[in-house]
From TrEMBL, chain A:
The keyword Lipoprotein does not apply. Keywords: Exonuclease, Hydrolase, Nuclease. GO terms for molecular function: exonuclease activity. It holds the Pfam family Metallophos. Residues 1-200 form the Calcineurin-like phosphoesterase domain. The keyword Hydrolase applies. This is DNA repair exonuclease. Gene3D superfamilies: 3.60.21.10. The lineage of its organism: Bacteria, Bacillati, Bacillota, Bacilli, Lactobacillales.
Automatic annotation (TrEMBL), chain B:
The chain crosses the membrane at residues 395-412, 418-436. Signal peptide: none annotated. Pfam families: AAA_27. Residues 1-206 form the YhaN AAA domain. It comes from Furfurilactobacillus rossiae. Keywords: Membrane, Transmembrane, Transmembrane helix. Coiled coil: none annotated. This is AAA family ATPase. Gene3D superfamilies: P-loop containing nucleotide triphosphate hydrolases.
Length: 412, 836
């Protein structure tokens, strides 16, 4: 018995935080979530898994993504042709909504309703599998859904729970989504909890039960770093053994570049080039799947860097130069620097005299207060995108201001 | 802190130089490039560290090999007035420092320096305690309101540069975005972003269609399946109806037949009987036909024998005996003709010989051999003998040839044989005569007597009168020939007479038939030919007539046989018919055909019944008539047609929808737009953030400056008041903050708002406030106040006032003044002045 567990496909979601990328890459980039999913489906067919679990967020319902839904339909049809059933619980992004009923999926796709329910199947090797889950009826499910999951069915050889949600009490943007605790899940005595919602791959508990977030299959911004893929779970002598399989054609990565004793632009370029080629060699050495490495470089120990170099760093001209050089050898190296930043200052506000520090602090309190930010932004916050990004970013803004003021002070 | 000595190892132009410093007021005087600024930078570098390699101009590395750096000796304002020496030499992080407590003569840890400097760092020091020329000169370029702002924010450290910075940030912000602007970057980005959003919104509007389309396709497929079932149903119904229609005539016949077939009571004619009947009938027919033909033939053959044929038959024996001589007569005719020809030729030759020798009748006769001998002896002989000898040999040869020809003629069978025979006979005869001649001559040769008697006898005997004896021998061949010819002609003539008699006799045999076969005026050859033709012609006719009569006899015999056979057959036929009580063959045939038809009908009905199963019968019976079937068929066909059309329509619709669905599915406009929008958002937020950062930076600076100023202003104003009075030569005596507005009051008590002051006065007010601020700050830090030729533009009175003010300030804080103004030399004490 073997199955694939995946979640958070977000087939239609655009890549965030990208701009000014060479045109030649765009196609590859925005096809990447779908490419990743196609790879997954091909793997499922090739390895002849018994079923596929998708724990929510296939696409964003609000985005009304036609091609994503169509592509998903096509892939489901492929699995249908291969007679591989799919168990699908909708998440907070692709929640059930009778009003905007989406595409009808082929008969091999079994979707959960809003109440916790279960599907039973017997695999080719006669393993009786029971899969329990539910779908989000709306954008938000704040209740503890795990509590309503039934206890283990003694009839089942393998019992799996599908849950799109986050651990209760953890701070962050996800804390209101179907909160659960690991203890709670363990108390159900299932074999495997196929979680979804958190894009970072994590194993919350190892074996009896496995509690696993497979992560999304394609990182969509600079902070969703590392290889992305799905979990292939195989039964080996009544044990379930999950293994990770990378499928993302675009991989984000963060690298720090130590600039100690580097002063000029050309020596910085050399240092970066050296580090990139080492990285490319490493990636080639341990991965067979062709993927594009999208790198964000953080420069540390930059004290010695010439003012001109720093300026070229902040105004982005160095990044553009770097990218144009990389584009020439993209096919072989398969890596591209998309962000090039100086690390935050180690010590802050060096430019402010201690004598006046309390005046600065006093002023900062009012200047970086949300009300003042809103008041200053005024009409600009009529634009929701800007408002949501900046309205509550007082501390970030303050850091940015300090960086800017310090930079200005240095230039004096 | 009061600096008492500056000791430079190497810094800029200075090397191994020591300057003692007046702890109250120290003036450095020197022309431009004298090194004033270098000393100033040395002091701040030793206190706060050397500039790094990033700012080489600030480093003042010594041009020669001297050691970099040097030391400051200073006294702290603590209770013990502790003296320190701070030494800074080249090293990391601004240089290595060595701090010595001169009072206790102890080397102190470098960290102590931070304690000694307290809150003062380079920034604070530069901003608060260093007055430089350029800084004040800037004031002359700023506008009145800006100057006012500077004045009002004088209470913060480095307010001037902060204010500039804040202004720069505000300007940067305005370049990025203005609420009602169009050109700034963010305004443009917002416009582009909204356009893009609208595009995406438009693209999203097709989503419901998309979802509906899939549902339509699926329901269309269901509909096709339904229609397919219905079509199948209707098709089988249609086929059934077609079958019903096809069966209908059968059914109808079957139904009609069921209404009643006539019963058959008569005895059925058996097949054998019918076969016999047919056979007999046929035989009878044939016999009758044959009889008719025979009678007709007989009739034909009773015709008369033609008259000529009958004549021939009547005289057949005569004709036949005539015919027996045909060949003989033909030979005779030929011989006659040949003989006549011979006579003519030989007569010609005889006449020629007669004419040649002018023989008169009776012509000479040839000498016999003895006579010839006799004559020859009488004349001369010899040659003649040779001539006769050779001639005799030729005659023997002639006899041989004649014998051969005769034999050949006898062997040959055709008509030509007669020619050979005759020639052969002629040859033999000719030869024979000559041979006889020869024998005679031989005899004569021996018997020759006397010459004279013999000659006359001979002349008489041989009619040789007129010819001399010596010519006789020469004439002998011609005479012999003449004699021979005469004999031959005579013989031929007699033979011709004989033949004429035969031929005439033969033709006389036909005189009885002169009317039938007229031969009178014909040549013998033609007459013979005609007789031959007639005979064979008539013989044939006779044979024909005789054959016909034989046939006739045969026919009559046959006919009588036939008649008996016919009666036999008729009897048999009658017997057959009698079995069924039927009189005539016609009736028999009719009855048989009737019986046959009935049997067929019965069989057909049975066959029909076999075709119609009970199931089909039930179906057929449910229709009144064929038109009802037709009607039903029309209905079903129409329904089927409409279903098929519907299905085709739905199929076409689905195909269209699927094509649209596929196109929509593959349309990457939306993801591209969405990605572009996301990119735009990134840019937008970034720009907006930059704008906010600019704005907030300015705000923060303003806020901090305002806060500091508001807090310190009363103290600053209090100090500044006296400085202002000094600077204005006691024209203004009071500075006040009223309702957050700065006012000044003259010694006469007139109150001016700062906005009402002249530019010069405002500058003086600003300097007074700056010095007031430095003084206030010095209360806590006591850093030396370093003034770098800052008042060069002041008029003489004001400059003097400034010098006075410095002296005044020196009471409170150490003042180090760098100037190129020689006026200073006269104003200050010598122990306060160092000339560079």
């Amino acid at each position: 018995m073997k199955f694939i567990h995946t979640a958070d496909l977000h087939l239609d979601s655009p890549f965030l935080g990208l701009k000014g990328l060479p045109d030649a890459l765009w196609q590859r980039i925005y096809e990447s979530p779908l490419t990743a999913f196609k790879r997954l489906v091909s793997d499922a067919i090739d390895t002849q898994v018994d079923f596929v679990l998708i724990t929510g967020d296939v696409y964003d319902r609000q985005e009304r993504a036609i091609n994503a839904q169509a592509a998903f339909l096509t892939e489901m049809e492929r699995l249908n042709q291969a007679q591989i059933p799919v168990y699908l619980s909708y998440g907070n992004h692709d929640y059930l909504d009778a009003a905007t009923d989406g595409l009808q999926l082929p008969a091999n796709v079994h979707s959960f309703g809003e109440e916790v329910s279960s599907f039973k199947l017997t695999t080719r090797d006669q393993t009786k599998v029971e899969i329990v889950g539910f779908s989000y009826p709306a954008r938000v499910v704040a209740t503890d859904m795990a509590a309503t999951f039934p206890d283990r069915d003694p009839q089942a050889d393998v019992q799996i729970g599908m849950l799109h949600g986050s651990i209760a009490g953890k701070p962050g943007p996800h804390d209101t989504d179907a909160p659960f605790t690991v203890d709670e899940l363990m108390s159900k005595h299932y074999d495997y909890w196929a979680l979804g919602h958190i894009h970072k791959r994590q194993v919350l508990y190892e074996e009896r039960p496995w509690i696993i977030y497979p992560g999304n299959i394609q990182g969509r911004h600079i902070n969703e770093t590392g290889e992305k893929g799905y979990m292939l779970v195989q039964q080996e002598q009544s044990r379930l053994v999950p293994t990770f399989h990378a499928v993302a054609p675009v991989v984000w990565n963060m690298q720090t570049v130590d600039c100690d004793s580097i002063t000029s632009t050309s020596s910085l370029q050399q240092a970066i080039a050296k580090q990139l080629s080492q990285l490319a060699d490493r990636v080639k050495a341990h991965s067979t799947k062709q993927s594009l490495e999208m790198l964000s470089l953080k420069l540390i120990h930059t004290d010695q860097l010439a003012a001109e170099t720093k300026q070229r760093l902040t105004n982005g001209s160095l990044l553009s130069l770097l990218q144009s050089q990389e584009m020439a050898r993209l096919a072989e190296a398969n890596q591209l620097v998309v962000d090039l930043q100086l690390a935050d200052e180690d010590s802050e506000s060096t430019h402010f005299t201690q004598l006046d520090q309390h005046y600065w602090n006093q002023a900062a309190d009012s200047v970086f207060a949300a009300e003042n930010i809103a008041k200053t932004a005024d009409q600009l916050f009529a634009e929701p995108t800007i408002a949501s990004a900046l309205a509550h970013s007082g501390e970030d803004l303050k850091q940015a201001v300090i960086r800017q003021v310090n930079a200005a002070g240095r230039n004096e | 802190m009061n600096i008492t000595e500056i000791n430079i190892d190497g810094f800029g132009k200075w090397q191994n130089k020591t300057f003692p410093i007046n702890p109250q007021l120290q003036v450095f005087y020197g022309e431009n490039e004298a090194g004033k600024t270098t000393i100033q930078k040395f002091v701040s570098s030793v206190l706060f560290g050397f500039a790094t390699a990033k700012h080489p101009a600030e480093q003042y590395l010594p041009k020669t090999g001297a050691g970099y750096g040097g030391s400051l000796t200073f006294t702290m304002d603590d209770a013990q007035q502790t003296q320190y020496r701070l030494r800074r030499t080249s090293g990391k992080n601004g240089g290595d420092i060595q701090l010595t407590n001169l009072t206790t003569n102890q080397v102190m840890p470098p960290e102590l320096l931070d304690q000694l400097l307290g809150p003062v760092d380079r920034t604070l020091n530069d901003a608060t305690f260093n007055f430089d020329l350029s800084g004040l000169q800037l004031l002359t370029t700023v506008t009145q309101p800006e100057l006012m702002a500077n004045v009002q924010r004088v209470g913060a450290v480095g307010s001037t540069s902060w204010i500039e910075l804040a202004e720069q940030f505000d300007k940067d912000a305005d370049d990025l975005y203005r609420p009602r602007g169009q050109k700034p970057a963010l305004n443009q980005q917002l416009t582009a972003y909204h356009d893009l959003q609208a595009q995406l919104k438009a693209a999203e509007a097709s989503y419901p269609d998309f979802v509906k389309r899939q549902h339509d396709i699926l329901s269309g497929k269901q509909r096709i399946a339904q229609l397919g079932d219905h079509i199948k149903e209707l098709t089988s119904k249609r086929d059934e109806l077609a079958r019903i229609k096809q069966l209908w005539p059968v059914f109808e016949k079957y139904r009609d037949m069921s209404d009643g077939l006539p019963d058959v009571n008569e005895k059925l004619i058996t097949a054998e009987d019918y076969a016999d009947f047919l056979k007999l009938q046929t035989q009878r027919e044939q016999l009758m036909q044959t009889s008719v033909r025979q009678v007709a033939q007989l009739k034909e053959q009773t015709a008369e024998t033609p008259h000529d044929v009958q004549f021939y038959i009547d005289h057949q024996s005569a004709f036949k005996s005539q015919a027996a001589s045909f060949d003989q007569i033909e030979t005779a005719i030929h011989e006659r003709q040949y003989s006549r020809q011979q006579v003519a030729e030989q007569s010609d030759e005889r006449d020629q010989i007669v004419a040649k020798h002018r023989f008169n009748a009776p012509w000479p006769t040839p000498l016999n051999d003895s006579e010839y001998e006799q004559v020859s002896r009488l004349t001369q002989a010899g040659q003649q003998r040779a001539t006769n000898g050779s001639k005799t040999r030729e005659q023997w040869l002639m006899m041989g040839v004649g014998l051969v020809l005769l034999l050949l003629g006898l062997i040959m069978s055709s008509g030509v044989k007669w020619v050979f025979v005759l020639l052969g006979i002629a040859g033999l005869a000719g030869g024979w005569f000559n041979v006889l001649d020869w024998f005679r001559a031989q005899q004569a040769h021996g018997t020759a007597a006397t010459k004279e008697s013999s000659i006359s006898e001979l002349t008489q005997q041989h009619h040789m009168a007129g010819f001399p004896v010596d010519t006789w021998l020469a004439l002998q061949p011609d005479i012999q020939r003449l004699n021979q010819l005469t004999d031959q002609i005579d013989s031929l003539k007699s033979r011709i007479q004989q033949l004429n008699a035969d031929i005439n006799h033969f033709f006389e045999g036909y005189q009885f038939a002169e009317t039938q076969l007229p031969l009178t005026n014909l040549s013998a050859a033609d007459a013979l030919l005609k007789a031959r033709q007639y005979t064979s012609e008539k013989e044939l006719a006779v044979a024909t007539v005789q054959g016909q009569s034989q046939q006739r006899l045969q026919l009559i015999r046959e006919n009588s046989d036939l008649q008996s056979k016919l009666s036999e057959v008729t009897t048999s036929l009658q017997q057959v018919m009698q079995r069924y009580h039927i009189q005539t063959p016609n009736d028999f045939e009719n009855l048989y055909q009737q019986q046959l038809q009935l049997a067929d009908q019965t069989a057909e009905r049975r066959a029909l019944g076999n075709q119609l199963t009970p199931e089909w019968l039930a179906k057929l019976t449910s229709y009144q008539d064929l038109s009802a079937v037709d009607q039903r068929q029309a209905e079903v066909t129409a329904d089927l047609q409409s279903d098929i059309e519907q299905r085709d329509q739905v199929q076409e619709d689905i195909a269209n929808q699927q094509a649209l669905f596929a196109r929509q599915s593959e349309d990457d406009t939306m993801p591209m737009l969405r990605q572009r929008l996301a990119n735009m958002e990134t840019q937008l937020v970034e720009t907006a953030q930059q704008w906010l950062v600019d704005r907030l930076s300015a705000q923060w600076i303003d806020g901090a400056l305002n806060a500091a100023s508001a807090d310190r202003l009363p103290a600053i104003v209090e100090r500044a008041q006296t400085y202002f009075a000094t600077l204005t030569l006691a024209h203004y005596t009071k500075i006040e903050f009223i309702n957050e507005a700065l006012t000044v009051t003259t010694s006469q008590g007139t109150v001016f708002d700062v906005t009402e002051l002249s530019r010069g006065t405002t500058e003086q007010l600003y300097i007074a406030l700056r010095l007031g601020f430095a003084s206030v700050m010095a209360d806590r830090t006591a850093m030396p106040l370093i003034i770098d030729d800052a008042f060069v533009d002041f008029d003489r009175h004001r400059k003097q006032a400034m010098f006075n003010l410095m002296k005044e300030l020196a009471q409170q804080v150490q003042v180090i003044y760098f100037t190129a103004d020689a006026g200073a030399l006269t104003t200050f004490d010598d122990n306060q002045i160092t000339e560079l």
